[in-house]
């Protein structure tokens, strides 16, 4: 077999029709994906398997239905606090059920979350990320609350505990689109200054 036939230079000699066939080779049938946003995919799963275990940590486990209700309650509260598409919300937590509730609530409200691991993130990076992202609010676990100074905070544990007896919470009106930000992650940056990378819903669902 002549390897030259598969060189990049050889591909340039293909006709437009041949190039189109080459680009199409190996691709499956294109299908429309109805769940355009990250939280919509979760909600579909919650409707399909409400009593299945959605997430568990060292202390408890909760079902999809329970998780959806908790996230809806918090999302409604966040909307009341002015969290709409375009707003950024810091998430200063450790891996836990509260973290997942916070993520889903921010997305359901229409905002983008800024994930910050309270056990790892340095004070300088925390301050920079909240300032650079222009975070309107920080959802915190109580153990990390004293690390935030200039931005309003909301205790995840306190909110969830207060609303445990609420039978149902309505999800805020859906305002998100695939082009909206889902989250912003901060890299170390070549200059040593963390740089924010804005990730849209469609980047996560891999559909446009």
From TrEMBL:
Q: Which GO terms describe its molecular function?
A: phosphopantetheine binding
Pfam families, sorted: AMP-binding
The alphabetized UniProt keywords are:
Multifunctional enzyme
Sorted alphabetically, the Gene Ontology cellular component annotations on this record are: cytoplasm
In the record, biological process GO terms are:
amino acid activation for nonribosomal peptide biosynthetic process; secondary metabolite biosynthetic process
Q: Superkingdom of the source?
A: Eukaryota
Segments traversing the membrane: none
Q: Which InterPro entries match?
A: AMP-binding, AMP-binding_CS, AMP-dep_synth/lig_dom, ANL_N_sf
Q: Where is the AMP-dependent synthetase/ligase domain?
A: 42-206
Report whether DNA-binding shows up as a keyword of the record: no
Q: Which SUPFAM superfamilies is this protein grouped with?
A: Acetyl-CoA synthetase-like (SSF56801)
In its UniProt entry, what is this protein called?
A: AMP-dependent synthetase/ligase domain-containing protein
Q: What broad taxonomic lineage does this protein's source fall under? A: Eukaryota, Fungi, Dikarya, Basidiomycota, Agaricomycotina
């Amino acid at each position: 077999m002549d390897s030259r036939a598969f060189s990049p230079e050889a591909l340039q000699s293909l006709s437009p029709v041949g190039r189109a066939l080459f680009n199409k080779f190996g691709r499956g049938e294109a299908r429309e994906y109805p769940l355009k946003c990250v939280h919509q995919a979760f909600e579909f799963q919650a409707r399909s398997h409400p009593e299945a275990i959605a997430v568990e940590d060292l202390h408890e486990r909760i079902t999809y239905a329970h998780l959806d209700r908790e996230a809806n309650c918090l999302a409604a509260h966040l909307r009341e606090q002015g969290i709409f598409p375009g707003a950024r919300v810091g998430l200063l937590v450790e891996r836990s059920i509260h973290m997942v509730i916070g993520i889903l609530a921010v997305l359901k409200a229409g905002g983008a979350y800024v994930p910050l691991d309270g056990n790892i993130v340095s004070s300088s990076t925390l301050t920079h990320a909240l300032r650079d992202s222009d975070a309107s609010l920080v959802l915190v676990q109580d153990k990390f609350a004293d690390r935030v100074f200039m931005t309003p905070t909301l205790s995840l544990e306190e909110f969830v505990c207060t609303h445990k007896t609420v039978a149902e919470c309505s999800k805020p009106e859906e305002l998100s689109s695939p082009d909206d930000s889902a989250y912003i992650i901060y890299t170390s940056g070549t200059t040593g200054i963390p740089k924010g990378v804005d990730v849209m819903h469609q980047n996560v669902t891999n559909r446009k």
